[in-house]
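Hi Y.,

Following your request, here is the sequence exactly as I used it, all 239 residues.
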Amino acid sequence: MNAPPDITDADLKRLDAFLGSEHVPESAMDVATLEGFLTALVIGPHVVMPSAWMPWMWDFERGEQEVEFADMAQARETMGRIMGLMNRIAGAFARDPAAFEPVFFRDAAWGAAEWCEGFLAATQRFNADDWAALWRLDAAGALGAADRAGMIMPFLRLGEASGREITREEGNARRWVDAVVPALAAIHAHWLARRPTRPSMVTRAPMRREAPKSGRNDPCPCGSGLKFKKCCGQAPTVH
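Below is the corresponding structure, written out as tokens. Let me know if you'd prefer a different format.
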């Protein structure tokens, strides 16, 4: 099995440009929202297959619209960057969760509000009952959080409209931005302790080639082992 290629911030900017291009619905996520969304999937209670979450990446509002790749080469390149981002997130939490660096720490163009909105969306659309149980335990103080505000609060104060309004009134956005990574580390530890044999979220990304060499009956570029038409091909359409 080939190791996934490293993904750089330059790769993410190219991915961001694609997500904002005419090939993609206007309701598609940007890179900040996507990283927050993928982070919740990576550190969450159960594995979610790309075929389930990818429609929401292209259509953040309803998960119904499709992307139209120009050709298979563009599809492989885009999928490689998406899976490369997911691999980078998973690798960071496997090494040192407290050292995870969200994209909004590295580039002002990627906002913390969008990042947290993506994180919350993933907790509401996948394994929602498990996440709700975690938030209830946290609110009750059963998890012994160091910050009495609780693990979910940074995401609510930055990622929801009502929370952002309160944060603006209080003028303490920096507090909540700084609380994001500690909250993520605590969430990761919670779910990891309950799934000691959990399969790795790291997914092999496709090798990049100069010419298209695969079709809808070939293995999906995301590395799931399924045919493209049965996995990510259910949402994106290659023309």
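DSSP finds nine helices and two strands in the chain.

Thanks again,
Q.
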